Amino acid sequence: MSEALEPVAALAGRWSLDHGATGRLAALVGVLADDPGAPTTIRAPERAVEAHLADSLVALELDVVRAARRIADLGSGPGFPGLALAIALPVARVALVESSARKCAFLNRAIAAVDVSNADVVHARAEAWSEGIEAHDLVTARALAALPVVVEYAAPLLALGATLVAWRGRRDEAAERAAERAAAVLGLEPVEVRQVQPYPAARDHHLHLFRKAAPTPPRFPRRPGVARKRPLG
Asked: Could you give the CA distance from residue 137 to residue 52 in angstroms, rounded to a whole number?
């Protein structure tokens, strides 16, 4: 993966990552390119560095991300942002929560190939993962579902005072208002919408932050699938 080494090194330098993290990030790009079961259409190394690694690591701009110690990444797919954050934050424990057995198998192969010791694959839907309830100081979600649905998935998994960071593209006022209404039901409050630029050509990238300000009502999580069928907000 020599073609990826220079952009990965530049990315690692941007976020002050050590040499070991740089090597693991480059190895992860290699896994995406070489593993035929990688669940992504973006496999070319230089493009993967931007679309996957840079887009994930831009969250290091947030103090709450850098300080996190128990992270749940919902709908991890090919491992982003969760696996990239596990590499960047070796003192954090990262749960890669994924409902697809095929994607979980890839995640396990990637963890082994890249030699990441602080990430665990959780084969479950977020709504059905009882072991994760109130156990995390950070929940992340990228390209998972509509924003009100993501808020509902995350709320039960967050400890009081903990934060959800949701990756989104162009801002949508109606979706944001719906998410705020859902958050109010779930014990969360909106904190910030941070415009970010993970790589020079990136446009309309935003991180939506919600803080858990009150306990989530005991009727949540609802049964798997209900949040998408009957979203709050």
From this structure: 23
- What is the distance between the alpha carbons of residues 225 and 31, in angstroms, rounded to a whole number? 31
Q: What's the mean pLDDT in 158-172?
A: 97
Domains of the chain: 58-229 (3.40.50.150)
Question: What is the pLDDT confidence band of residue 5, given thresholds at 50, 70 and 90?
Answer: confident
Q: Round to whole Å and give the CA distance between 178 and 37.
A: 36
Secondary-structure breakdown of the chain: helix, strand, coil percentages, each rounded to the nearest 5: 45, 20, 35
Helix segments in the chain, DSSP class H: 2-14, 19-34, 45-48, 55-57, 63-66, 82-88, 101-114, 147-154, 173-186, 226-229
Residue 154's nearest CA partner among 171, 137, 170 is 137
Nearest Cα residue to 72 out of 83, 58, 87, 56: 83
pTM across the whole model = 0.96
Structure-derived torsion over alpha carbons of residues 209, 41, 1, 205, reported in degrees to the nearest 10 = -30
* The predicted structure's pLDDT at residue 3: 60
